[in-house]
Amino acid sequence: MLSYKWLMLCFVCILLLSFGYSYARTTQSRDKNSDQSWMTARRDSAGIAPDPRQLKDTAIVEIYTAPTYGWRGVVAVHPWIIFKRAGETEYTRYDVISWGSDDVVRRNSTVPDGYWFGSRPKLLVDHRGTAAQAMIPQIEAAIKSYPYPHTYHAWPGPNSNTFMAHIGREVPQLGLDLPANAIGKDYRSLLNPVGLPPSGRGLQVSLLGVLAVTLGVEEGIEVNVLGLNLGVDIKSPALRLPFIGRLGPDPVVKAEASGS
């Protein structure tokens, strides 16, 4: 009984410290010249994506995340994917958005690498060249096969992170590692509680994203309790924590540039 109480106390302390750290970091990441109204917050380019015109002959696939708008940005992130084939001079962007239409999967809702309502995006995946070219049809097929195109629930899912996790499972070549604060990435239906993790390589057991255990090549070891994820990244050593996402050096995102 005593050990259980200490375990719970440690868990609560981790939650409080993670929340405080995330609050400070998220506040700093927002555009300081914006009043953070959803109508006026920055949505322009963050200048991260390579110029598609200069790299016209190169296929590119990138995935971004940014803190969600408002108070939810302290606890969760919003992801999206952009891509272009060799020969194209514009990116195509896909993400899941809860407002404005019954179809939550949106195409080109805003600029490819734009601030997400004032929050600067972070690059998670960058593939270029022949590998990226080969992935794009698989990505498009994964988008079409997303099981919840008309359903959105901020917690526990399905939501924007559920959508990106679906793409990662269908296209493991992406090597996607959604952070621990990507709430909804572990969402699985009651009829499909066991399967691949969002990275597409490993094993995940999840009860509607409320209780889950993940063992993945990219994720390492992660436990989900009520949508709060704790774990250890083994491939790129770091702690995986709720609210924060990752505590430790960020993995190096290398652009694969093999041909066009």
Describe the 3D structure.
The chain has 260 residues and is an alpha+beta fold. Helices cover 21% and strands 25% of the residues. It contains three helices and twelve strands; from the N terminus they run H-E-E-E-E-E-H-H-E-E-E-E-E-E-E. The strands form two sheets. It has a six-stranded mixed beta sheet with strand order 4-3-2-1-5-12. Strands 6-7-8-9-10-11 form a six-stranded antiparallel beta sheet, with no helix packed on it. A hairpin with a 4-residue loop joins strand 10 and strand 11. Helix 2 crosses helix 3. The longest helix is centred in the first third of the chain and has 28 residues. The protein starts with a helix and ends with a strand.
Distance between the termini: 61 Å
Q: Note the total helix count.
A: 3
User: How is the main sheet built?
Assistant: 6 strands, mixed
Residue windows where pLDDT falls under 50 for at least 5 positions: none
Principal-axes shape call? globular
Mean pLDDT: 90
What letter string, H or E per element, gives the SSE order?
A: HEEEEEHHEEEEEEE
The percent of residues in helical segments reads 10-25%
Radius of gyration: 18 Å
What's a concise summary of this model?
The protein is of the alpha+beta class.
Question: What labels describe this entry?
Answer:
single chain, 260 residues, alpha+beta, 6-stranded mixed sheet, 21% helix, globular
